[in-house]
Amino acid sequence: MTITAQARSFDQAAAGYAANRPSYPPALFPAVEELAGRPLKGARVADVGAGTGLATALLHARGAHVIAVEPGPAMTSQLRLRLPDVPLVLGDGNHLPLASGSLDLLTYAQAWHWTDPRTSVPEAVRVLRPGGALALWWNDSDSTVAWTAGQDARLRRFFGAGTEEPDPMARFRGLPPELGFVHRQMSWTRNVPLDTHLANLASYLLTEVFPDGTAEERYRTSCAVLQVSAWG
Q1: Looking at the DSSP assignment, which residues form a beta bridge with residue 108?
Q2: Phi/psi of residue 182, nearest 5 degrees
Q3: Cβ atoms of residues 7 and 69 within 8 Å
Q4: How many CA atoms lie within 13 A of 150 on its CB side?
Q5: SS3 string of 122-139?
Q6: I want to staple 128 with a disulfide (CB 3.0 to 4.6 A). Which of 17, 45, 132, 178 is the partner?
Q7: Higher-confidence residue: 23 or 8?
Q8: Distance CA 67, CA 202 (A)
Q9: Residue 218's Cα: distance from chain center in Å?
């Protein structure tokens, strides 16, 4: 399966994604403004891999002139329900349907890993104006919390991902160093019903394992029969 096809596999769980995925901390966007060297208010922004519009809505609320870019039809349907007045185009980070030099800021909220940097980096450079900025961010579970670390370890074992705890900052190590990315990390929490927590896990993990939205369940049925008459 190609990277683009994997990204579009989340279309199968678009409604669950919209209902259960966490948003982003209040401190994120002031940090983006500081690192980008300009306010979001009035900025021309494209949110790529926008999904159901979690980040798009927050960028819009801060006064950015934002356009959403998303390859999945089901995801775009959810985004239109949430943000009917925000411009939306079908596309992905490897082939941005945007004019050269048209943007102040290009954002990828948990979506950069679905691109091929050999094409997405030149595309980002193409669409950004001189002095523009590319911002990437992800939510990762905080392994300093004991129950979270235990849960993540069990999931890694179950899905065959090894036992070593991943480093969230490793996501950025594949970026060309000459681009001069500056990193910032912040901690935050949300309190949700257990059903929401489990549905959020499913939106991350099960969609990746079962990209067509179906699972072949295989069982072994064990049966024992006792003929009472044989005991007579």
Answers
A1: 48, 136
A2: -115, 130
A3: no
A4: 3
A5: HHHHHHEEEEEEEEEECC
A6: 132
A7: 23
A8: 28
A9: 30
Q: How far apart are CA 193 and CA 200, in angstroms?
A: 11
The Cα–Cα gap between 144 and 141 comes to 9
Q: Could you say which architecture CATH assigns to the domain 3-231?
A: 3-Layer(aba) Sandwich (3.40)
Per-residue pLDDT of 58-108, as tens digits, reads 999 999 999 999 998 888 998 999 999 999 999 999 999 999 999 999 999
Q: Is the dihedral of CA 38, 44, 46, 50 positive or negative?
A: positive
Q: Is the dihedral of CA 75, 77, 83, 85 positive or negative?
A: positive
The pLDDT of residue 3 is 46
The residue among 133, 128, 129, 122 whose CA lies nearest residue 39 is 133
Asked whether the beta carbons of 40 and 105 are under 8 A apart, the reply is: yes
The number of residues in the chain equals: 232
Token pair for 81:
């329900």
Is the pLDDT assigned to residue 1 strictly greater than 50? no
Domain boundaries, the chain: 3-231
Contact 53/88 with Cβ under 8 angstroms? no
Q: Kindly state the DSSP code that residue 95 receives in the 8-state scheme.
A: B
Phi, psi of 39 (to 5 degrees): -75, 155
Write down the pLDDT at residue 140: 82
133-170 per-position pLDDT tens digit: 999 998 888 878 887 778 778 777 766 666 676 676 77
Tokens of 59: 């960028």
